[in-house]
Structures are given as C-alpha cells and as structure tokens.
Amino acid sequence: MNYGETLAYWYLRFNGFFPIVDFVHHPVSASFLTCGADTHRRYRAQFRRVVQYVRALLCVPYFRNGAVSHPNRPDQPTQRALDTYTADSDVLAVRLPYVKEKIADTDVHWDSDRFANWQLDLERHTIGLIVQVKTSDRIEPEEIRRTFDSTRLKYAIERLGFLEPDEVTTAVAVLQDTPTYQDHSKKYVIGKLLICEKTPTCDGQRPYLTAKLLEIHHFLTERLQQFEPRKYGDRLFFPDELMQYMIWRQNHAADLRNDPSANQHIPSAPE
Fold it and tell me: Same domain for 27 and 158?
C-alpha cells in the first residue's frame, strides 16, 4: 500500500469496516481498456527505458538496442494479452450495522456526519464500499471513469456478495450514474468512494462519493488524540509503519512544538 491507501484503510477500520486492500480483479476483460495505440506505444517506450537502465547496471548482452529480443511482436497488444490484464480495487470494505467498540471503557464514535452526508446509515445499513485512492494533484475524468468501469464494478459487487446474481446487473447500471445503490430489501448499500488529494472538478453531480486525504488525516489524528495513551502503548501492534509514526508523533506533539532543536534543521521558506 502507498501512504494514501494506508490512510484510507485505517479511516475505514476506525469507522467499523472490515477492509481488504489491493483487491485483485483477475482477469479483467479488455472491454474497459479504451486507450489507443499512442498509450500502448508510451508503455512500450517506458519499458524500453527500464530495459536500458537494467542493461547499464548488469551489462547483460541479451538486451539489444534497449529492448528485449521479441520476434514478431505486434504493433498492438494481442487480444489474449488484453483479456488477461489484471486490475484492482485499492480497498474493498464491508461494514455491518450494529458495530460497537470500546477503548479504555469509552465508546468509540464514528465519522457519522460524513456518512450521513453520503446517505449511508451506519446504524441501519450493511454497507459495501468500492474504494479507489488517488494521491495525484490532478485526476483526469477519464481516469476516474476507468477506475469505476462497469467491468470492475461487477467484479467487486460479486465479491461483496450482497446481491443475488440477477440484481448485480441492475446495480452496475445504477452505479454508472449515481454514487450508491440500495438493494430491494433496503438493507444493503453499495457505494463508490474516491479518496483523493483534491476533489476533481465535475459538471453536475459526481457519480461517486468523495473524501480528501486531508480530511481522512484529520479524522485519524483526532482519534489518536482522543485515545492517545492507549494507542501509544499499543503502537507496535499496528502493522503499518505510517500509523506507528502518526501515533508516535501524536504522543510527542508537545515536545515537537516546544523543542527548538526539532526545527533547527528545517530551512525557512523563501521570502
């Protein structure tokens, strides 16, 4: 996981979800790969640069002219190669409606207002989220469209297991234009969630839920602050180094603010 996916994972964990990270869709049909020949040529060019670098490091004679010998390589990837392309969901998460948790005899509170704004009822709905995390400052609309392509949605929805097979097609169709789908029984809700650096510009309503990484970070920081002594004592039980560091930093927040040596090596901003 990269840092954005780690923050997303723990945001969902701290809100009572059971998340799966890097959920692999294999194989995914090539129907969603709409990029043209220019994109494929760019990928091959990137590959050749990697080969040149490896050749320079290892001096392997098999590499010739910056490319691996590959007879009869077509200008376009074959249909078989495309059909075996593997995609993934950064996080796939499930939450049941009656989640309760106590830390140091204190009830844990969820980010209820945000979920209410998303029209997700934490007390009533069984929720499945298909989550993609983007850490780039700029996200192209086409990239988001591919991220929540119907093929990927269908694969993820079937893995969640909320819906009968006949209803999956309906859910995929609805989720093409709306952020969430509620099943016929009104008990299950499936949502598409984009966690990103900056909210993408969009004409009209976005067909996905959004949260900024800074908002996710703020929630995690507040939770760590609320249960700071307990979390600090248990910090090494967290498998992610990023979370261990955040807990350590929260515990030493006052020291970092008051210790002049903590900032003496940080260059001042240019005037």
Answer: yes
Q: Which residue has 């593997």 as its token pair?
A: 86
Structural domain contains residue 238: yes
Same domain, 98 and 206: yes
Containing domain of residue 242, as a range? 227-257
Closest by Cα among 204, 210, 201, 174 to 189: 174
Same domain? For 183 and 200 the reply is: yes
Q: Has residue 266 been placed in a domain?
A: no
pLDDT tens digits along 184-239: 888 999 999 999 998 877 655 679 999 999 999 999 999 988 888 888 888 888 88
- Sign of the CA dihedral with 193 first, then 199, 205, and 206 last: negative
- Name the pTM for this structure: 0.72
Q: Are residues 14 and 43 in the same domain?
A: no
Least confident of 63-67, 193-197, 254-258: 63-67
As given in the structure block, the two tokens for residue 204 are 């009209």
pLDDT at 30: 47
